């Protein structure tokens, strides 16, 4: 049987080891560093979601720092609160906020499919928990690889408590974010 003190030492070693593995080594460029995998846990999903696996990726002809600033501005334009702002690892966004009725000036059903009920699309009537991030990586040619991820889940706010449901996305909001980033790069 393992003692509590020994278990604690093992956990500390694992955390310190992971931190050291994330550190930049001398002579290593940012694009050679290991990437940080963003995960979020939303109601209605049985497991955390690795956001890099659901992102739409594209190449943009700008350095990562410039794309990063444009992404922050794009989120402001769409009134998406930014709670993750990590320029070292190239991530901007929010890993979970609650929103009702509209996102980016459109009804929720424009961006999400959470099923439908007697009154129409559930996305328009339910409370949604949403995660939206932009992930930026440096490419060897000086450009940036940009991934935009959006996931959501919905909870009925009427009547008896019901289980939350996962929502699919239409790609509309992801496209808006990408278009705004591109537009801000050309200014």
Structure description:
- Helix content is 30%, strand content 33%.
- It is of the alpha+beta class.
- It folds into 2 domains: 1-29; 35-186, 2-Layer Sandwich (Alpha-D-Glucose-1,6-Bisphosphate, Chain A, domain 4), CATH 3.30.530.
- Strands 3, 4, 5, 8, 11, 12 and 13 form a 7-stranded antiparallel β-sheet that branches.
- It starts with a helix and ends with a helix.
Level-2 CATH architecture of the largest domain? 2-Layer Sandwich
Integer-rounded radius of gyration: 19 Å
Order of helices and strands: HEEEHEEEEHEEEHEEEH
CATH class of the largest domain equals: Alpha Beta
Number of domains: 2
> How would you state the average pLDDT, rounded?
84
Q: What low-confidence regions span 5 or more consecutive residues with pLDDT below 50? A: 1-34
Question: Any idea of the CATH topology of the largest domain?
Answer: Alpha-D-Glucose-1,6-Bisphosphate, Chain A, domain 4
What is the count of DSSP helices, taking H or I runs of 4+ residues? 5
Amino- and carboxy-terminal Cα gap: 63 Å
Number of E strands: 13
Shape call? elongated
From the helix content, strand content and strand pairing, which structural class follows? Answer: alpha+beta
Biggest pleated sheet: 7 strands, antiparallel
Bin the helical content. Answer: 25-40%
* Amount of beta strand: 25-35%
